[in-house]
Amino acid sequence: MDNHSRPDLTEEAKEAFSTVFRTHYKLLCAHAYTLLQDEQAAKDAVQQAFMLCMQRHADIHSIASYLHKAVYHNCLKMIELRKRQSSTYLDDALANKESVYPDQDLLAGQDFSKVRQLETALEQLPRQCKEAMRLVYIERRKYNEAADIMGISKNSIKTHLRKGISSLRLLLKSPFSNA
How far is the C-alpha of 17 from the C-alpha of 143, rounded, in Å? Predict the structure, then answer.
Protein backbone atom coordinates (compact mmCIF):
# COMPACT_ATOMS: atom_id res chain seq x y z
CA MET A 1 0.00 0.00 0.00
CA ASP A 2 2.13 2.84 -1.20
CA ASN A 3 1.60 6.47 -0.35
CA HIS A 4 1.17 7.47 -4.00
CA SER A 5 -1.97 5.41 -4.65
CA ARG A 6 -4.22 7.31 -2.19
CA PRO A 7 -2.75 10.63 -1.06
CA ASP A 8 -5.99 11.49 0.82
CA LEU A 9 -5.57 8.65 3.33
CA THR A 10 -4.57 9.86 6.77
CA GLU A 11 -1.81 8.15 8.70
CA GLU A 12 -4.51 6.73 10.96
CA ALA A 13 -6.39 5.31 7.95
CA LYS A 14 -3.17 3.85 6.54
CA GLU A 15 -2.48 2.14 9.85
CA ALA A 16 -6.06 0.86 9.99
CA PHE A 17 -5.75 -0.59 6.47
CA SER A 18 -2.44 -2.15 7.41
CA THR A 19 -4.08 -3.81 10.43
CA VAL A 20 -7.04 -5.01 8.36
CA PHE A 21 -4.62 -6.35 5.76
CA ARG A 22 -2.59 -8.30 8.35
CA THR A 23 -5.76 -9.61 9.99
CA HIS A 24 -7.71 -10.69 6.92
CA TYR A 25 -5.24 -11.33 4.10
CA LYS A 26 -4.55 -15.03 4.72
CA LEU A 27 -8.21 -15.88 5.30
CA LEU A 28 -9.28 -14.00 2.17
CA CYS A 29 -6.56 -15.74 0.13
CA ALA A 30 -7.70 -19.12 1.42
CA HIS A 31 -11.31 -18.32 0.52
CA ALA A 32 -10.29 -17.14 -2.95
CA TYR A 33 -8.16 -20.24 -3.44
CA THR A 34 -11.14 -22.51 -2.72
CA LEU A 35 -12.98 -20.81 -5.57
CA LEU A 36 -10.12 -20.43 -8.05
CA GLN A 37 -7.80 -23.37 -7.25
CA ASP A 38 -4.88 -21.12 -8.24
CA GLU A 39 -2.69 -19.52 -5.58
CA GLN A 40 -1.49 -16.56 -7.65
CA ALA A 41 -4.99 -15.81 -8.98
CA ALA A 42 -6.29 -15.96 -5.39
CA LYS A 43 -3.67 -13.45 -4.25
CA ASP A 44 -4.53 -11.21 -7.21
CA ALA A 45 -8.25 -11.32 -6.34
CA VAL A 46 -7.50 -10.33 -2.74
CA GLN A 47 -5.11 -7.57 -3.80
CA GLN A 48 -7.75 -6.13 -6.15
CA ALA A 49 -10.29 -6.19 -3.33
CA PHE A 50 -7.95 -4.29 -1.01
CA MET A 51 -7.20 -1.71 -3.69
CA LEU A 52 -10.92 -1.20 -4.33
CA CYS A 53 -11.52 -0.96 -0.59
CA MET A 54 -8.89 1.76 -0.29
CA GLN A 55 -10.47 3.69 -3.16
CA ARG A 56 -13.95 3.49 -1.66
CA HIS A 57 -13.07 3.54 2.03
CA ALA A 58 -15.28 6.54 2.79
CA ASP A 59 -18.42 4.71 1.62
CA ILE A 60 -17.74 1.40 3.38
CA HIS A 61 -19.44 0.61 6.68
CA SER A 62 -17.95 -2.84 7.35
CA ILE A 63 -14.52 -3.31 5.80
CA ALA A 64 -14.32 -7.04 6.58
CA SER A 65 -17.71 -7.71 5.02
CA TYR A 66 -16.87 -5.53 2.03
CA LEU A 67 -13.57 -7.35 1.48
CA HIS A 68 -15.21 -10.78 1.61
CA LYS A 69 -17.81 -9.75 -0.95
CA ALA A 70 -15.25 -8.01 -3.16
CA VAL A 71 -12.96 -11.06 -3.15
CA TYR A 72 -15.91 -13.31 -3.96
CA HIS A 73 -16.96 -11.11 -6.87
CA ASN A 74 -13.38 -10.81 -8.12
CA CYS A 75 -13.14 -14.59 -8.12
CA LEU A 76 -16.40 -14.88 -10.05
CA LYS A 77 -15.08 -12.43 -12.62
CA MET A 78 -11.86 -14.43 -12.96
CA ILE A 79 -13.79 -17.68 -13.33
CA GLU A 80 -16.02 -16.10 -15.97
CA LEU A 81 -12.95 -14.84 -17.83
CA ARG A 82 -11.43 -18.33 -17.73
CA LYS A 83 -14.67 -19.78 -19.09
CA ARG A 84 -14.74 -17.27 -21.93
CA GLN A 85 -11.10 -17.91 -22.78
CA SER A 86 -11.64 -21.67 -22.61
CA SER A 87 -14.77 -21.38 -24.73
CA THR A 88 -12.95 -19.27 -27.31
CA TYR A 89 -10.12 -21.81 -27.44
CA LEU A 90 -12.59 -24.67 -27.81
CA ASP A 91 -14.50 -22.84 -30.55
CA ASP A 92 -11.24 -22.23 -32.42
CA ALA A 93 -10.16 -25.84 -32.02
CA LEU A 94 -13.51 -27.13 -33.25
CA ALA A 95 -13.42 -24.74 -36.20
CA ASN A 96 -9.96 -26.03 -37.15
CA LYS A 97 -10.98 -29.65 -36.44
CA GLU A 98 -7.77 -30.17 -34.54
CA SER A 99 -6.27 -28.97 -31.33
CA VAL A 100 -2.85 -27.44 -30.94
CA TYR A 101 -2.61 -29.44 -27.73
CA PRO A 102 -4.13 -32.90 -28.20
CA ASP A 103 -4.56 -33.42 -24.44
CA GLN A 104 -6.70 -30.28 -24.32
CA ASP A 105 -9.50 -32.12 -26.13
CA LEU A 106 -9.57 -34.71 -23.35
CA LEU A 107 -9.66 -31.99 -20.71
CA ALA A 108 -12.46 -30.17 -22.49
CA GLY A 109 -14.48 -33.39 -22.57
CA GLN A 110 -13.96 -33.86 -18.85
CA ASP A 111 -15.07 -30.30 -18.16
CA PHE A 112 -18.30 -30.86 -20.11
CA SER A 113 -18.76 -34.12 -18.24
CA LYS A 114 -18.55 -32.23 -14.94
CA VAL A 115 -21.02 -29.63 -16.20
CA ARG A 116 -23.46 -32.36 -17.23
CA GLN A 117 -22.97 -34.04 -13.86
CA LEU A 118 -23.73 -30.75 -12.08
CA GLU A 119 -26.80 -30.12 -14.26
CA THR A 120 -28.09 -33.62 -13.48
CA ALA A 121 -27.54 -33.05 -9.76
CA LEU A 122 -29.31 -29.67 -9.93
CA GLU A 123 -32.33 -31.32 -11.53
CA GLN A 124 -32.59 -33.66 -8.52
CA LEU A 125 -32.94 -30.78 -6.06
CA PRO A 126 -36.32 -29.71 -4.68
CA ARG A 127 -38.04 -27.07 -6.83
CA GLN A 128 -37.43 -24.12 -4.49
CA CYS A 129 -33.77 -25.00 -3.85
CA LYS A 130 -33.20 -25.30 -7.58
CA GLU A 131 -34.98 -21.99 -8.27
CA ALA A 132 -33.07 -20.15 -5.52
CA MET A 133 -29.74 -21.48 -6.83
CA ARG A 134 -30.63 -20.51 -10.40
CA LEU A 135 -31.56 -16.96 -9.42
CA VAL A 136 -28.62 -16.30 -7.08
CA TYR A 137 -25.75 -18.27 -8.62
CA ILE A 138 -26.61 -18.44 -12.31
CA GLU A 139 -28.48 -15.16 -12.84
CA ARG A 140 -26.40 -13.49 -10.10
CA ARG A 141 -29.35 -11.79 -8.48
CA LYS A 142 -29.14 -10.43 -4.96
CA TYR A 143 -30.88 -12.33 -2.17
CA ASN A 144 -33.58 -9.66 -1.90
CA GLU A 145 -34.30 -9.80 -5.64
CA ALA A 146 -34.49 -13.59 -5.60
CA ALA A 147 -36.77 -13.46 -2.55
CA ASP A 148 -39.10 -11.00 -4.29
CA ILE A 149 -39.24 -13.12 -7.44
CA MET A 150 -39.99 -16.28 -5.47
CA GLY A 151 -42.35 -14.54 -3.05
CA ILE A 152 -40.42 -15.65 0.04
CA SER A 153 -38.18 -13.98 2.63
CA LYS A 154 -34.48 -13.30 2.26
CA ASN A 155 -33.79 -15.80 5.06
CA SER A 156 -35.77 -18.46 3.20
CA ILE A 157 -33.57 -17.84 0.15
CA LYS A 158 -30.48 -18.35 2.32
CA THR A 159 -31.96 -21.56 3.72
CA HIS A 160 -32.78 -22.92 0.25
CA LEU A 161 -29.26 -22.08 -0.94
CA ARG A 162 -27.65 -23.75 2.07
CA LYS A 163 -29.78 -26.87 1.62
CA GLY A 164 -29.15 -26.88 -2.13
CA ILE A 165 -25.38 -26.64 -1.74
CA SER A 166 -25.38 -29.34 0.91
CA SER A 167 -27.47 -31.61 -1.33
CA LEU A 168 -25.24 -30.93 -4.34
CA ARG A 169 -22.15 -31.86 -2.36
CA LEU A 170 -23.74 -35.16 -1.38
CA LEU A 171 -25.02 -35.87 -4.89
CA LEU A 172 -21.69 -35.07 -6.52
CA LYS A 173 -19.71 -37.18 -4.03
CA SER A 174 -22.05 -40.14 -4.37
CA PRO A 175 -20.45 -43.21 -5.98
CA PHE A 176 -23.81 -43.73 -7.69
CA SER A 177 -23.70 -40.41 -9.53
CA ASN A 178 -22.71 -40.45 -13.19
CA ALA A 179 -19.06 -39.70 -12.45
Answer: 29
Contacts of 130 (CB under 8 A, 6+ apart): 122, 123, 164
Q: pLDDT tens for residues 13-63?
A: 888 888 988 998 999 999 888 888 889 999 999 999 999 988 888 888 888
Is 1.10.10.10 the CATH classification of the domain at 110-179? Answer: yes
pLDDT tens for 129-170 read 999 988 998 888 999 999 999 999 999 999 999 999 988 888
Q: Find, among 60, 65, 58, 75, the residue nearest to 24 by Cα.
A: 65
- Which CA distances in Å does 82 have to 45, 76, 90? 14, 10, 12
**Whole-angstrom Cα Rg for the chain:** 20
Which of the listed CATH numbers 3.40.1130, 3.30.43, 1.10.1740, 1.20.120 matches domain 10-98? Answer: 1.10.1740
| CB of 55 closer than 8 Å to CB of 6 | yes
